[in-house]
Write a structure and sequence with these properties.
This protein is about 30% helix and about 20% strand. The protein contains seven helices and ten strands. Strands 1-2-3-4-5-6-7-8 form an eight-stranded parallel β-barrel, surrounded by four helices. A two-stranded antiparallel ribbon has the order 9-10. Strand 7, helix 6 and strand 8 form a beta-alpha-beta unit.
Amino acid sequence: MNKQNPPLVKICGLRDALAARVAIESGALAMGFMLAESRRRVSPEVISSILDDLPSARPPAIGVFVNESAEHIVAQVRAAGLDMIQLSGDESPDILGELDRPAWKAFRFTRGTTVDEASRVIEPWFTRQRPVAAILLDAAVVGRYGGSGHQANWELAGHLAKRYPVILAGGLNPGNVVNAILTVRPIGVDVSSGVERDGNKDIPSIQTFVANSLTAFGML
């Protein structure tokens, strides 16, 4: 496993300062904000307001983008005051040279994809002058770029986690995250719909997800 200390737990799809504060106080080490088309989408102005309401020593705030130009991403990131970028669409690795923040790249591999096939897709993102800091593995759902609540391929993710810094996403929740971490051995986990109730972030679910995740990482 690629070691990272402390382990990275990201709560994504945040839309208000209360949920963001709870995530931080629970021990989450990354906050995700949707700037792509989504029911969880928030404007740069709202993100900026949320971040202003948080402690100065907060974890990194990550903006999620899908198939946007580098110029658009840079402008939105600066307006929102974000620290990192998550590319969750069909972007080319060439975009990395035009960004001014560290980036993650999300991948969704269909069932049957081999480790070597996945690696050929992933590798170019680590050979650029400014490589990605990590890759995020999500579930492959037709027409969706994340946040579907479907489970990623843990077997493939486990193999890839031996080669790359993998953040596991897709269908995670407080009940299965321990097994997911022990199975895949990623450097981090990412959750959105798994800590929601009726379409909104659920405070107890956030607290339990983070606690269970940190417990599991402590067992590796």
